[in-house]
Each structure stands twice: as C-alpha cells, then as structure tokens.
Design goal:
about 160 residues, four-stranded parallel β-sheet, globular
Length: about 160
C-alpha cells in the first residue's frame, strides 16, 4: 500500500522544469494544479500497489487530483477529529497512518516526514514500512520512484 500526500509530492511548491506556467485559474480553479504531472499517475499505478490518499485534500483528491493524474478513485484516510499534538516530533499523520495500515506493509510519500516518524513507525508497526520524504520544491522525482521500487524489491524490513 502506498499512502500519498498531495501538496509537495504531487503538487510541488516550485513549477517543474518544462511544465506550463500556472494559469490564473488553473484546473479546477486552483492554479497550482497546473504543476501536477500526469506521468506521476502512470508511474504510481505501475508500482503495483494499492494507492491511498493520505492528504488534507481528503475526498476532494478523488474529485480534483485523481482525474488530472489519470488515477481511479482511491481509498481516503479519514483523519481523526482530535487536534492533539502527538509529541516527540511526530507528524500528526504518523499514528493514524500506522493504525490504518493495520500491520500491512506500506510506503508513505510525504514532504513533512522526519527521522522521528521513521523511528516511531519502525518501533510501532509490525509490518514493513518505508517512510519516504519527498522534496516539496521538486515533487516526486525519478530518485523517489527508484527508492520505492528498491524497497518494494527487498525482502528484509526497512524504514
């Protein structure tokens, strides 16, 4: 299973080289949607994993982002209503995603993860997990896809 964040990994904070300039309205009224790369959708599908939205876009990701990437409707992680800080430097998504995975192997692609998240997942998740930080300025790159493909090909646990 691959948990996908939208802002940063799929919509980089900088325009991608060779991408068209952002329009005043962009696709769906959001000029940053012009930064989506449809090739990312094909490449994500090509990884052969269940894809799951793990983003504050929540169900809007299926309405707005998925069609622009050529993705089908994906499951969506519904975040808990608590605004409680998990502490210990953990990202607010870490515990919820680990619970959602329920022991299954997963990859988490996000631009806000840190070593604290990787350590927490390694200590608290019984399955394999790759918590992979994507550079939010660049979005998903060949190196990110290669890291996921390497991890998918390994048999030993690694975070």
């Amino acid at each position: 299973m691959i948990f996908l964040d939208v802002d940063g990994p799929l919509i980089p904070f900088r325009a991608r080289p060779g991408s068209r300039p952002a329009t005043a309205q962009g696709e769906g009224g959001n000029p940053l949607l012009d930064r989506l790369d449809p090739a990312d959708g094909r490449r994500l599908i090509g990884l052969g994993c269940e894809l799951v939205w793990a983003t504050t876009w929540m169900h809007e990701a299926n309405e707005t982002v998925a069609p622009l990437l050529g993705l089908p409707r994906l499951p969506v992680v519904d975040w808990p209503d608590e605004d409680e800080d998990p502490g210990d430097g953990l990202h607010w998504k870490t515990i919820a995603l680990t619970r959602w995975a329920d022991g299954r192997p997963f990859v988490w692609l996000d631009d806000e993860t840190t070593g604290a998240d990787r350590r927490w997942v390694a200590a608290n998740h019984p399955g394999r997990a790759l918590v992979h930080r994507v550079d939010p300025l660049a979005g998903l790159t060949d190196a990110d896809f290669a890291a996921v493909q390497r991890w998918l090909g390994q048999a030993s646990p690694q975070t």
